[in-house]
Design brief:
Layout: E1 5-9, H1 22-36, E2 40-45, E3 62-66, H2 77-93, E4 101-105, H3 110-120, E5 124-128, H4 132-140, H5 146-157, E6 161-164, H6 167-175, E7 184-186, H7 199-206, E8 211-216, H8 228-235, E9 239-244, E10 257-259, H9 265-273, E11 277-280, H10 293-300, E12 305-308, H11 311-317, E13 321-324, H12 329-340, H13 351-359
Helix pairs in contact: 1-13, 2-3, 3-5, 7-9, 8-12
Length: 363
């Protein structure tokens, strides 16, 4: 029997296949998990990489279809984006290749995927990572676009299954978008499987002899790293902070903050294992819909986590750390010291587990 064929499509040109962001890591992780499941995978994405560079090796067993977006005049950019997505889908299906089902990352360009699934008569799964209109409104400090919300609603309601990465998103899809709750499934993110990291090797290479707290991932304005210098001052000279990532937000300056830049996937485990405590100090106005990969990376290496208090953080951390409702640096320093005295057992959640939960009862 021939393997099932899946079309994995990410229409957002801001998420290149080999980009450095968590969204690109997510895309690569799902693609490789589909291959490990024995499926024939064709991945359609506008870009292989962008100005941030090309990160991590080529995907094994994945057929990649690239269709770069065109440059559209300001007045027709929305129509142009839809045309780009249609062209991407047409390129993916141009040779008569027919998928058995479609896995599509949620964007405001979902009409093309919706029509393709209807024309082919195949199931369409939507991976829901954010409410697009609401996220854009939050970033721009303006009310959400009703037109974008309407497009989101049509796309999500037409999906065979909505795979929401957070419980907040699952509720939003059902209560705000009108999706049938039976078609909505909460499936938190995963990470790539791999061996335990060699934290001692990293400590030796960096000359670290004291306690180490760290932050993994892109540095965004809402990540709360501006509080880190004050927290380090409370912790005292025996503590150093590692920043395992880059901007776009500036990294705070402090004598005991070491920014190491963006790490390739292969180096993440070793550097996370070098930490005594992993941080997720999101600001109080951070969106509630995220499912941070950094928490999963910390937990996989048995690193205790101290995080701001959100529903997703509580669910992902479990007994592997603590959450704080306060921004007070004294409270954070005390929590870091408490958690630094323990080493919870590693808890690994892989992309293979994500697929098992997402595809249950479908294939």
């Amino acid at each position: 029997m021939d393997p099932l064929r899946v079309l994995l499509i990410c229409p957002d040109p801001g998420i290149p296949l080999h980009g450095p962001s968590g969204a690109s890591v997510h895309l690569r992780g799902i693609a490789q998990a589909l291959v490990r499941r024995g499926l024939k995978v064709r991945l359609a994405v506008p870009r292989d990489h962008d100005h941030r560079g090309r990160h991590d090796p080529d995907l094994q067993g994945v057929e990649v279809v690239l269709r770069p977006p065109r440059t559209w005049p300001r007045g027709v950019q929305t129509l142009g984006a839809w045309a780009d997505t249609r062209a991407l889908l047409e390129a993916a299906l141009a040779d008569g290749w027919r998928p058995d089902w479609i896995w599509e990352r949620h964007t405001d360009r979902g009409a093309a995927g919706q029509r393709a699934a209807a024309r082919l008569g195949v199931p369409r799964l939507i991976e829901l990572n954010a409410p697009i209109a609401r996220e854009r409104a939050w970033l721009a400090a303006r009310p959400p676009s009703r037109r974008i919300e309407a497009r989101e609603r049509r796309s999500l309601r037409a999906a065979t299954r909505v795979i929401a990465v957070s419980a907040w998103l699952a509720r939003w899809a059902s209560t705000q978008m009108g999706c049938d709750p039976a078609r909505v499934r909460w499936v938190p993110n995963g990470i790539a499987p791999g061996p335990a990291g060699d934290g001692q090797a990293v400590r030796r290479a960096l000359g670290l002899s004291g306690r180490v707290v760290g932050f993994l991932g892109s540095v965004k304005p809402w990540h709360g790293l501006d509080r880190l210098p004050a927290i380090l001052d409370r912790l005292g000279t025996g503590w150093t902070a590692l920043i395992l990532g880059t901007g776009p937000a500036p990294i705070p300056v402090h004598p005991r903050i070491q920014p190491l830049g963006r790490l390739d996937d292969a180096a993440v485990a070793d550097h996370v294992a070098a930490l005594d405590v992993g941080l997720v100090p999101s600001s109080i106005n951070a969106p509630p819909w995220f499912c941070p990969l950094k928490i999963l990376q910390y937990r996989a290496q048995g690193v205790p986590v101290v995080a701001s208090d959100t529903e997703s953080h509580r669910q992902l951390i479990g007994d592997g750390g603590e959450v704080l409702a306060s921004d007070d640096p004294d409270a954070w320093a005390q929590a870091i010291v408490r958690q630094g005295r323990r080493r919870p057992p590693p808890k690994i959640r892989t992309w293979d587990q994500v697929l098992d939960e997402a595809l249950k009862d479908l294939c």
